[in-house]
Amino acid sequence: MKQRIVTGVIAAALFLPIVTYGGWPFVILVYMMSATAVVEALRMKGVPAISLPALLSVMLSFMLIMPGAVADKWQNAGYGKLELLLVFVLLFLVYTVVTKNRFTFDEAAFCVLTPLYIGFGFSYVIETREAGVLFVFFALLITWATDTGAYFVGRSIGKRKLWPEISPNKTVAGFYGGIGSAVLVAIILLFFVEFEANPLWVLMATALLSVAGQIGDLAESAMKRHYGVKDSGTLLPGHGGILDRTDSWLFVFPLLHILQLL
Fold first, then answer.
1. Domain map of the chain by residue range?
2. DSSP conformational letter for 99
3. Residue 162: which H helix or E strand, with range?
4. Could you tell me what percent of the chain has a pLDDT over 70?
């Protein structure tokens, strides 16, 4: 626990000022986090970090994260993200042929789905920051409150397992404790921050975001359990890898956009 807290404090001290500053430093940081998360996921599958499929997967995630101004230039040239995605799909399929199926269709599918999952998620982190730093902090606070509430409530009174086949430590009480903690944080924020949305809608959306964050956590847990790994990486001592720390974000930030709280 001590190592986990120390790592969290150091990571926050490095991350939050860049979030506050925004601009290209923030965009570059998101790109770095996305690339690391993609590589971590590929390693679970057994795809080497230094390989052509890994390079293509990282490039695909970068394409999906592409800021609006850059994407517009590609669009003006007649190439939208959908067309570029098709190019990457074809490249992966060509590679299965070139390697005489040593790189399989299953691996090609994984190398496409992984950057889609991660790249799109991080693209909404950038979109949210462009809408205003307040919304990024709102999403982060909701996510952290959910994790904290789920952990302490689950440890205190949690008995019935939530989904033991995927994550044996999570409990039903922890699930609801996470939602309650997130809503409590939102209530406190409403006293200090004026949202354009109706306060009741903010609280309802907060509950949905909390659920989404927990589903994102479970989705990555399902992946890790399937591939028989404990953590996605070792970059953050006590926390695991980048994907372990941002799996909730990949669900929360897109949903924040869909709910139109921005």
1. 2-258
2. T
3. strand 161-163
4. 91
Tokens 């695909």 map to which residue? 60
Taking the model in full, what pTM does it have? 0.91
Instruction: Tell me what pLDDT residue 25 has.
Output: 95
Q: How confident is the model over 21-53, as pLDDT tens digits?
A: 999 999 999 999 999 999 999 999 999 999 999
What whole-number distance in Å separates Cα of residue 44 and Cα of residue 205? 33
How far is 251 from 246, CA to CA, in rounded Å? 9
- The rounded distance, in Å, linking the Cα atoms of 201 and 40 is 36
- Token duo for residue 73: 């230039």
| Neighbour tally for 62: CB within 10 Å | 16
Record the tokens describing residue 247, joined without a space: 């799996």
Q: Which residue has the tokens 């992984």?
A: 114
| Ramachandran quadrant class, 133 (left: phi over 0; alpha: psi -120 to 50; beta: rest) | alpha
